Amino acid sequence: MAHDRRPGLEQSAVEDQRAQVIYLHPAKQRVGFPFAKVILSSRLMPYLLMPAGLVGLANLLAGEGIVVRGINYPVECFIKPGFDLVAWLRSVGPPRVILVDLHWFEHSFGAMDIARVCKAVYPDTPLVVGGMTASYFAEQILAHSSSVDFIICGDAEEPLRQLVLQLCQRDTRAKDLESIPNLCYRRGNRVIKNGLGYQASSAELDDLDFINLDFLDHAQDYLGFEYVPVRGISTPSEELQGRWLTIGRGCSYNCSFCGGGNASHSILAGREGFVMRSVEAVVDDIEELQDRGIHQVSLTLDPAVVGKSYWKSLFSELSRRRIRIGLYNEAFQLPSEDFVEAFAECAIPRHSQFALSPLSGDEQVRRMNGKCFSNCELFAVLKALKRHRLPVGIYYSSNLPGQDETSLRKTLFVSERIASLYPSHLLAMYNLPHTLDPCSPMSCHPEDFDIEVQFHCFEDYVDYCQRTAVGVPRLGDRGFQWRKRTLDEQRKMQQLWRDFGNQQRFPCL
Fold it and tell me: Residues 459-476: pLDDT tens digits?
């Protein structure tokens, strides 16, 4: 095994420890949002998945002898309506450090509101924020939010370890802070941003424990939320558990809409290409998750785009150890047919799913936005997936650059062919609009995509999250507009898709 892990602690054992570090995962919504009133509404989007790398960070600190205790705030609100965050903070503190993640922009308002509440309860406790969105807006956040004391930009492992050790010793002398790579902080009225001097290596990622959730309250409940539902396969009586597993970081593509592409990783983390965990470490983790009764493992990075030698070794080792488990994989591009064959040998179909993102049935629009495959290639892969009866999700986007009614009708034509080819009980389709992702090519270079950007700063994202706390954001709330097409034209296109979806026997949103 790559590292030893203790079995999960009972809840009472966690509660008996006085936490030196408290971690909180925010909802999209404010603290105190009445989740109970809308808990059954499919239009409520709390975004309760924690960043997969956070587990490794918490266990890294635990390895230094630091007691970490965390909660997933929206999960707590779901399992205990009326959950009182202030009372919880008072019951477990005072801590030496508070950690809040701000990885996805959808948490911009929720993360800042949790920071506000934490500072109100513990005004003298340093509060640290990290994640891709925090990295991109670090200086703006520190300049405008007195609740946030430190932001770690890019990879956080070594910077967080150094910072927390200093803060737990109550030693925050300026010269010590200056030595911590990737750190952004205030000195008086000035915001100081240290350089991106640290990127995690493969060996460092291998040494991290991405499995144990000893630090997290109600971890068993969270495992249920991590399972990606497979339509028409699982029976309602099953108690299904999933885990998102870090297998690497980075990307080699620059899709128009994505804030996690190659250029973004270079800006936010100083990384070029991929840094991958070893096949042995990843398989060790999957084997342990299987032994713990986990039904499904979701991969944070598509092995297909890393290279054939990596994914062949990964699936070969899973097969050699006779590991079969549910696998969820979001394809960055289009996997090869032999990738599908190798995947299917290790995947239990009823707990597995393949997510494909052609974006559009129009190949020109698809290439413009970063997906490099033809419709012919798409259907060849779908036939391979069908042979193994693997559930598939097809993801389009209704408002990406280049889309018009002509391209939508091509999408409808392709979708009708897929619907006739693929078993309806194994299929789902989605054609939802994108919101402008910070640090995406569309955000950084709107002139290349003939769009006008409306979200320019962190406060724009905070405002967006407040306005869209319940319900699907409207087209006008997405942070950008096409220059040559009106909202009415886009709404007409959406209606055409809805008309198609209403005729299907599978989920089609």
Answer: 999 999 999 988 788 888
